[in-house]
Amino acid sequence: MRLSPRVLKRLQQLLGEENVFTDEISLALNGYDCSQSRHRPDAVVNVTDSALLEPLVSLLAQEKIPFVPRAAATNHAGSCAAVKGGVVLNLNPLHTIYRIDTARQFAEVAPGAITGDLQEALAPLGFFYAPDPASEKVCTLGGNLAQNASGARCLKYGNTSDNTLCIEFITPAAQTLVLRHNDPGPDWLGLVAGSEGTLGLIKRLYLKIRPAPKHIKTFLATFPSLAAGVQTVTDLVAQGLIPRCVEAMDHITTQAVENFAHAGYPAEAQALLIIELDGNLQQIKKDTQTLQTLCRANGCQTFTTARTEAERQKLWQGRRAAYAAMAALAPNVAVGDGTVPRSQLPYALEQVRQIIDQNGVSASLLFHAGDGNFHPQIIFDARNPQQTRRVHNTLQEILKTCAACGGTVSGEHGIGVEKRAVMAYQYSRETLRLFQKIKNAFDPFHLANPGKIIPLGFEEKAAPHTETDPAVLGMAQEIKKRFTEKTPSVITGTNSQLKSHSAHLLSDSSLNRIIEIDKTNYMAVVQAGLPVQELLAALRAQKVHAKLPGNYPGTLGGLVASKAWPDFISQITGIQAILPDGDIVQYGGKLMKNAAGYNLCRLFAGSAGALGLITQLTFKIYATPCSNAGPAQPLLFFKPDLLFCAVKQEIDPENLFISPAFGETNA
Amino acid sequence: MPKDLSSPHFLVMGPQGPRTLQNSVDYCTRCNACVQSCPSYLLKREETFSARGRNQIIRLLLEQKIKLNQNPSLLQQTAFSCILCARCVRACAGALPVPDHVLALRRTLGKNSLPFLLQMLVRLYGTHPTLFACMVRLFQILRKSGAIHILRWLGVLQMPGLRWVKHADYILPSTNKAFQKQLKKLKTLPEPDRADILYLPSLEAQYADPQIACRTLQLTAGKQVAVFWNQASGLFEYLYGNETRLMTQAKNLLTRWEKKSARRKLPLLTDSLEVYLFLKQYPLLFSALPGWQKRAQNFASHIKYITDLSFRPAAAHEEEPLTCALDTSSVLYPAGATAERARKILKTLFGKNFVECEYSRFSIPAGGVAFAYGTSAEEMILENVKDVARRQLRQVFCLSGWAALELDAALRRHYPQAQARHMVYLFRDDERI
């Protein structure tokens, strides 16, 4: 598709002639990122002022021209390749850090601001921004949110979405919205995070900043096996000791890195952990003792403490050089980012090594041991088609293994165009259909970064959802029946905050099982109809805790659907729900990170039963008591906004799930 | 001049040894780690002006996805907005020699790479140094007579081919008696029969600031010095010119060094960081000529920069030392150990008044290599001036003569409280020459 002279003229009038490029060189240079994807756009525009974003998107919407937001283009997934042509929006000129407010602990930045620049600006003020993707010196904060990037510190401080307070967001229809996590209704900000620009553009970000820890202590521990290393991390988390970061390497990687960077790692170590603790001195002292005890209990071979800053930097030197060690060996490096539940890590890594060996490719294996995220770095020469195919197959098999282990095909890099096909390994046909509906609702003409995330022909490629729980199956059948009969439903729990008089109540009280309290991964899987008080009692009996309100009278599903305890929303890592047409959808699981697809946990949180019936939730639990004082918030009445109406229209066009929050009409 | 980038002659030297251009460019994984270190990108914020973009342009040219004549002006801008500071090399995980890639592109772009007059000057310097000196003299007379001001007033210097003159005007010193006297004194120095050290003065030391040569000679006090006047190292041909002429100049210098030093293998001293780094690359230049390579390796191991000598600028600073910083920028590869030694010297001399400038933008090269595209060079130099002002520095010591001259010219215009000097200015000039 070539842009017509009329459209080009309009673009030039809006942005200035010097900021619109259609020459072959500029087009070719804006059609790639760190992945293997290369797609030529039809035009490239420099956005020099954020005030121009809205009229620009409006112009493109009027002309029905696809657009691809592009900043540093450091992603490994082909997220900013112009698959369908259109206009690439170069957001790099918007790199201003507008404001740093240490009193209220936030920073206001433009989408093209560099993560490293923000860190540099915060350091003299004694503050820091928690997410630390490996590319932080060059990646942009807008890109971080679009990919929901995380990093080594994510285990303790959460990912970009968790550290974003508010954004100004431009929908593909050129409407500017201010999104916050705690606004009434679904958590749109949480949904937009990680959407890779497919739902719209980020215009401005307000990010959470934190006082920098006064003391940081770094340790290096080696173990006779990967399993022992991972068990140590699990035990640490179980003790309520969340390290600042836990990085790990297997035997082969340690040797490769040591040969390259000479960081002083013991070359014979089968597993190597770099553990970092932060906080006040007393706390670190106490935690160090716990850490040492646990390491010893798991057969730790060596335990080294960095005494000085120079020693600390030396310990990190090897880990940081891991990519360079591989990049120097071959023209191309394919980096995977599959994530599995922590307990599955030793098994998954063993499988991955086997796959790598079977396919005859060379790869190093790094992993964030705390969250089950691992990075196979496969080196190859893209000029050799056979080798490239082998690498491609290897990555597919690795990601298939991740999905089979209950994990995700992407923990932090996103899906883009490169991992679109493997989404079908992880998600059922119904879930992918819901992703498609979300995209349609936000962007009916598929203008915002089209052709990403959702696999082509997923109806054939993805398997249908298989459900074994009779209660869920029963509920799904009932909803399907009502869908066929066009009978509306009002979802209620055991103690709904809003009393309904509808003749079509649909209670989730039959979904009241605790499916699993997993003390290895420190996750609980619970059906949504279980009253919170019963759940708390069960957790207490198991000597574990969750960030749940102590006095909430309703069910767990009600708590989430009404956003009555906002702190809990960020604790949810997996969700299962039944849509108004009876389809069962499932997202996430016992995963600390998931950057694959749209975050359905955030969509259903606060949806007040209007988008679907939550049947099951997976959430984090802790060995130490959590703060759960204070009353739960009442359900906030909210006027369905344009976004809500659009999503509702896609998911429930017949308006069969009627939320009490809007006042039912079918009583 | 080769028109084909895929010619095997384009060898580049990375940490893994020599590679063909195609092979080297293919090693770019497009991770973009280099982007925030690229001065031209930081000014423009466009992929076309980034290190990654330049690599990809060459790759696309090699893959014949784009053609040299498709958008020559953009290719020119891309190739010449790179100031070869090699900061991208330091940022790159695979340490790809991006400046070498850019140089290959510049050579392929051919005769249009520099304005005609400038191209002629570069050529003259290597082939007819006396004529070159006359041209410089003519330029100085023009300047003294005010002709340049008239041309500027008439707007002639705004014409695309002549923009560099405006820029060069700031650097070339006006002809004055002291300058001429000093130059004459230097050029009439008798050559010793048996030298202990050989000195290759840089272009700037010979024509723009003879003080650099004077003070460098002070460093060698007590030793017999043979000065290689009008001996081109090939640097300018390497950066802007013709490969045949480059090889001729390199061979000439190498042969002259061998002849002069006989079997003693004397050290060859240079006052320019650029020349020093370039001479160190001679083995790569001769990698295709087996007979010469060993000789080039031997030659490269005898190259010395001023900080390699015992550097004792005693009694030069009786007055209160002013706040100073070190600018380590240069063309080609990072200074590394050379900069470290210079830093130590300044730290010892200035103590707490020495300001460490780790801020990324400060190391934007102030060198004159970008004067073909004066506008972007001007913007970069202004960034430097801003940094100097922000830090309230009073002195900036540079390892490169061009960097010192350009930065000093800019400081004189925008921030006269500070001045930029070559590192050798730590010596007084009233001592022996």
Tell me the fraction of residues in β-strands of chain A, as a range: 15-25%
What are the segments of chain A in which pLDDT stays under 50 over at least 5 consecutive residues? none
Pair of chains with the largest interface and how many residues each contributes: A-B, 35 and 31 residues
So what's the overall shape of chain A?
Answer: globular
Q: How is the CATH topology of the largest domain in chain A named?
A: Uridine Diphospho-n-acetylenolpyruvylglucosamine Reductase, domain 3
Highest CATH level, the class of the largest domain in chain A = Alpha Beta
Spatial order of the strands forming the largest sheet of chain B = 4-3-5-6
Please give the alpha-carbon distance between the first and last residues of chain B: 42 Å
The main pleated sheet of chain A reads as: 7 strands, antiparallel
The strand line-up of the biggest sheet of chain A is: 15-12-14-13-17-18-16
Tally of helical runs of chain B: 21
Overall mean confidence score, pLDDT of chain A: 89
Report low-confidence residues of chain B grouped into runs of 5 or more. Answer: none
Global mean pLDDT of chain B: 78
Which oligomeric form is depicted?
A: heterodimer
